[in-house]
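Exam revision sheet. Question 4 asks you to relate a sequence to its structure. Input first:
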Amino acid sequence: MTNIQRNRTLQQATTSLSGADVLKAARDFFQRGSGIYSAFVEQEGPTHMTLRGQGGEEIVVGVAMAGAATAVTASSYLFDQQVALFLASLPPAAPVDALAGAAS
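Answer key, structure tokens:
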């Protein structure tokens, strides 16, 4: 049996934004959340950020270069829907075919 909760708590996306821009977007997105869904920066580094929400709920966002794109991993136990909305708000990375055509 697969762990369905794990699929909701650890989410990933790839974006055209830089790692620094992703972390800024995460800060802005979660701080402007409505009421019980807002979260504020607790720790921050060049490749990660932890935010703390109401009731002590933690959201972790990590970034890493993935070729010409940025891989984003985000995790939260209770804010999984908000994490999914944040990841969906990021501009997608360029398709690999488009990158190959630009290099020619």
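Marking note for examiners. DSSP finds four helices and five strands in the chain.
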